[in-house]
Amino acid sequence: MRIATWNVNSITARLPRLLAWLETTGTDVLCIQETKCSAEQFPTEELRALGYESVVNATGRWNGVALVSRVGLEDVVGGLPGGPDYEGVQEPRAISATCGGVRVWSVYVPNGREVEHDHYAYKLRWLEALRAAVAEDAAGERPFAVLGDYNIAPTDEDVWDIAEFEGLTHVTEPERAALAALREAGLGDVVPRPLKYAHPYTYWDYRQLRFPKNKGMRIDLVYGNKAFSDAVRDSYVDREERKGKGASDHAPVVVDLDV
Fold first, then answer.
1. What is the distance between the alpha carbons of residues 67 and 53, in angstroms, rounded to a whole number?
2. Which domains does the chain have, with CATH numbers?
3. Catalytic residue check, 205
4. Catalytic residue list contains 199
5. What residues contact 197, with CB distance under 8 A and at least 6 apart?
6. For residue range 116-146, what is the model confidence (pLDDT) as tens digits?
7. pLDDT tens digits, residue range 200-244?
């Protein structure tokens, strides 16, 4: 089974590339983040024409997550059970389903914006709610994984220059402690191999020629339980999909499983 995660940064803008990528790669399950559309605007029919079912948790121009699968979608849960509100709103940042016997979550963790911002405290609360929500599946025997844009670089090596991030979000101790709590719950970091250069970055800002200079970050993560991790045959960052006109600022992360 081939499972992938991709922050498309607007599914409307990325749809032609997304459909072509699915056809080319033979992906069975795709976790999508930042759909930036309403549920009604999601391209369900276009995906169905390629043989994919889809479920989406999206409300408009910001955030939004989805799962598309050609191996089934069962026991769908939209949203993060017990998740916090932000400014009185439950943002569409999580969706989960069972696909071909594997329990899969697609998540878009809050950005945090600035360390002193309310959004940063919200991010930490959201991550704690995620840990609580996945604890049972993380410790279970069924293959289980939480894939998506975590907006956290797990280590200093997961950014191009840690000195550039002094005082900024994505690399702080509390954020990394939240990742450690997921690992303590039974989830392991499935680190992909890079197809070019030494580090498997997954995100490069559009500004300041960050992609050509390879000034990237590894923030799109796959956290799987033991049953999932033991089944991993290969994992890589499809850096080629970050190239060219109309690309997202994130590249897909692909995982091949023997299940």
1. 8
2. 2-257 (3.60.10.10)
3. no
4. no
5. 214
6. 999 999 999 999 999 999 999 999 999 999 9
7. 999 999 999 999 999 999 999 999 999 999 999 999 999 999 999
